User: What shape does this take?
Amino acid sequence: MSSSSVHLGVDVGGTFTDMVVFDDRGQLHCFKMPSTPARPAEATLTGLDEIVSALGLTPAHLAGLQHTHGSTIAVNALIERRGARLGMITTDGFRDVFELGRLAIPHPMRYDSRRLVPLIPRGMIRGVPGRLDASGRERVPLDEAALAKAAKELAADGAALLLVSFLHSYRNPAHERRAREVIKAILPDMPVELSCEVWPQAREYERAVTAAVNAYVRPPVERYLEDLVGGTAARGIGTEPRVTRSNGGMQRARTILRQPVSALLSGPAAGVAAAAAVARDCGWDDADLITIDVGGTSADVGCVRHGQPVLSTEEHIAEFPLLLPSIAVSSVGAGGGSIVWVDETGALKVGPRSAGADPGPACYGKGSTTPSLTDAMLVAGWLDDGQRLGGRIPLRLSEARKALSPLAKSMGLDVEAIADGAISIAIAIMAAETSHVLARRGIDAPEFSLVPFGGAGPLIGALLAEEVYVDRVLVPQTPGALSALGAAYSDVQGDLIAPTYRLLSELASSELGDTCRQLEDDARRWLGEEAAALPMGEVRITFSADMRYEGQGYDVTVPVPRDVLLRNDTAALAGLFAETYRAIYGHTNDRADLWVKEIRARAVGVMPRPRQLRAGRSSGSAVKGSRRVRIAGKLHTASTLDRASLGAGDRVAGPAIIDQLDTTLLVPPRWQAEVMESGSILMTHS
Amino acid sequence: MIGVTDTVDRADAKSVILSEILANHFRAITEEMSSIVLRAAHTTFIKETQDYAAALVTNEGEVFAYPHSTGVTALLGIPMSPGTMAFDDWAPGDVMITNDPYFTRGMVMHLPDYYLFKPIFHGDRLVCFAWAFMHCSDVGGSVPGSTDMKSSEVYQEGLRLRPVKLFRRGKIDEEIWNIIADNCRIPSLNWGDIGALVSSLKVGEQRIMRLIDKYGLAQVQDAMRGTLDRTEQRARAVLRTIPKGDYSFTDYLEDDFVSDVPVKMTVTVRSTGDGTVVLDYTGSDPQVQAALNLPTGSQRHHPFLSLAIMNFIVTQVEGLHLNAGIVRCIELVLPEHSIVNASFPASCGMRFLTAMRAHDAVLGAMSTALPGKLPAAGAGEIAVTLISTIDLASGRLQVAVANPVQGGTGGGPLADGVTGIDYPTGYLRNVPAEVLESEMPVLVHRFAILPDSEGPGQWRGGFGVEYAIAVEHPNASIVMRGKERYKFQPWGVAGGGAGTLGETTVVDRRGRRDIAKASVFRPSPDAVMTIRGAGGGGYGSPFARDPGHVHRDVMDGLVSVERARTAYGVAIKDRAIDLAGTAALRRAGTSRHGIDLGSGRSAWEKEWGAVAQAIGRWLARIPARLRATAKETAWTEMKLLPIDSRGAAEVDRVLQELSMRFGA
Assistant: This one.
């Protein structure tokens, strides 16, 4: 299903707000606005005005505009600790759930390593008597008097919201719900958040953290969405904004306020989801992809398997462990701003510190003399002297050389050799981390393709691919604004979970079926609410089970057909587990018992896709000239091309450099680039 | 040596860059190997306690790449030549297995650790080894879990296997496996774990071979040596900051579980000023008749006795490649047949307690060598708790690991200590109550911070914690090991106060009782057992602590108003700091200096210190192999002396008599 409405995708980042528009003919346009962190919606609204006049959008276009927004607002509020002042009431004896976390410290060999500072200080947490056991049975009744007293104290100490998180509430929500009634009776205006309603999954620390983050980031997200809803309505836009979620999908601005934690990773997640969509547009419906988003301070690595972004339920975002399914994105401390330095033994190093965005790398000419990876790329000729980054900042080769020359002197090499070395080391770090990330996800990657994006991704993509033994690189049309594109492409998508926590052999005869039916009802209700305000098409509800062999530390999420659950077919479930397990580890253990931990449901409402023009025909005149570039220590003459002038079917043999507004693409020697019908460029290694 | 000079030649500089590139790849390989072990392992012990590791090792037995973010950190720098040189007929596809501390001269240090080695070949050339280990939950022996604090010989601790090839040219030797399987309580789980290790080694081999294909054999081998050399150089640069001289400290394991006599660990940190540190453990006690002995094979370098210096180096150096280069500059002097260099057949199941106390002793010595760089002593225990029940219907034995209960780290030097953990075991994770209760008939009553348990200081120690559980099963047992600092507190430094003590109590219908460090407890269903870990020692005078920090601790319920006044000289009135009152308190108090050993150790030293010293001097004259027995005998005699006749003369007389018996 594709639609002729105008589609807008937005990604509000810390520095830039990226916007992509598919006009009513399906032509793709890209806009970049400076972000306005104090009122993040402002940049979007100003950009919208610019788009309206640049594309000549009519009131009819605006009335039917389909617009979806991703942002880093929630995660920044979390990192900068700008959220709500919270109080928490928990089970007596577990007041220190945040302070103790999972006990371990991040870097045990370092005497300066510390646990994360909790969002809620100990003084704002109270334990009250009342206890359920793992089966949900009440062992100690809730002490309502103690609860009321605790609530009053926390309110008096300035809590703007009370979080209630009791042991085993994922199994039986009764105590948490009763707690809300008791609090509402004495403090009618106090907002109350229940851990069982945010995400009902076992593990008291992670569930409480998930609920706390949810409540914590709500005020800034609320402010932003109010501005956005009001501002878009005032401009005659007839549709409600949608917000991208960490799971790669989206939902309505009004309904996401119940669960803002689900939008925490919305920008990076939309980027990975977009990579999958870009591959589909190329006709790769079942693509296996590694995505790498190379920004200023870090590179974010994600995966797509069989056309679907790989999700994780053990993600740490800004060091907080969150249980909600999120597109798995791991950060590597190497990006364009990574500092190049020489250690005390004379070894060249890159990162993990970064020059940041301001003053940025030395070549920005803003007064920094600290050499960074971007400076090295400029010296190597990957970027051009005087070239404007993102159309804005002119790069100065002389500053880059000046910054790198002390390192060159100390190592007895010339500046070019230092630049080569720094780039190779940065790529090695990214490659090393990428293979580690894949291993953690249980993925061995020989058949994967790499999708590089972000400002510096397409420069590094092909060489990184060589290091991780991948020989196909897919470069999207707008690598510098891929998250915005992902937003425009996204479908409604929600996740639900229900606990089982039982040995397969001990499951009651109708347990799987009952759980399945309950999840299905909830999923339909959730989708119905979204459909009330969105032009949703086909609806899909799929199920999976989290399972493991007895004694193991990790669950394997096994996709399970609905009828297997409805029939309570435990033998089929065991078979499906074995199949999935074997695919990951190459063996099974037939003697071990199986745990079924949770049943999950995913609800998807398919949205009308923007109609998209195919790439134009070749103009035959894309070559602008040539320049000298150094790649892995060798000097080459690379032709330089303009991406806008390339058409479908055009082939470019490396070494070559392809420039476009939002990024530069390097085609190294022994690589071939070909423009595909969809407008993406496929690079292959010969 | 490559220095920051203008005279380096270009070829060297380029090989340094290539070596840096490859060092990143080496690390990634070990992280990948390590992830495979963790994900595919079957026993609770690996998943919850992270007691496993994987690394790459040179043919000479040096670890040249080690993961940063997973598994046990303390094995970095283990001397591996007893493994790599175990055979001279290594062939592609071989996998060696061993768990024998004595045959491998301190490479393996207790029987539950199975070490696996796989040689990596390029053509017929042996390039290096992939190595991985895990702590098996059971390898046979006298108790489930194999570690009984009261074992006196290694024979009681399980099956001992000198290096043997489990796989020959890719084919498993079923006979070897059957021997392992028949001598442990959980063969199928162990098989799952060993399978995970073997997969991890295979991946290590494939990845190294790929690097060789891409970069060439010579470059890869150069990089292996280069990364070791550069880590060594960076480590030496840190150690050169320690002023030349000898710095000594003594710490104790407060008893040895079979007697109440403390086990002394004395270390002299000898800085040569040129980047080498010698840790001389002369003066430490003989090995004991309990599972505390640390068999280090008289090695010149060994991480388990160098933890504090290694951590110090890693804390000081940014972006250090972790490898055995770190331990090259830490040299050991170890007395024979001692607690830190035990010889066959000493039992060693819980030898990590000894490594932890060696860590503390070095911290103490370093506090005078380099004030302001290292923290005070932490809780220094590991308190592993295993709960087992028999499923009444199926008869199946269920074993689960409950929380490892530890106290806090020491405070300082620049921040407060961490609550509920100590650095040498900082990778340990707790077991969520909701998970434990779903898998076992257990009810967790509390897992909470103990207020007022911190050693006070300008930077206070981490708080102790308590963990209270009940097992609702008629036939359950709780096996505990690794408890310490129940008598001698974690000490404070630079004027900081000592921390508290650990304890274990039981409350049931018969009332409350102290079970201290009992290794097995069979709970009745109405019993609640509470394990408490000690608070860490403080750093710097508590009167120098920012009153705002004291106030924050009071508001958080961590420090009482009374303690704020007495320990920190801070007056809190109506939930605010009383500035005038605070100034008055601080004027009246006296600022403290130096080390606070704590009341437990001070009281013991007052009563027995002179006797212990006399025995120590006497033991030095006894043949090394007899010292363990001699020490035990001497203490038995001393305890028989009436309290008023423990004078120097009397003590010497007793020792003189014993000298005949022990051939001195």
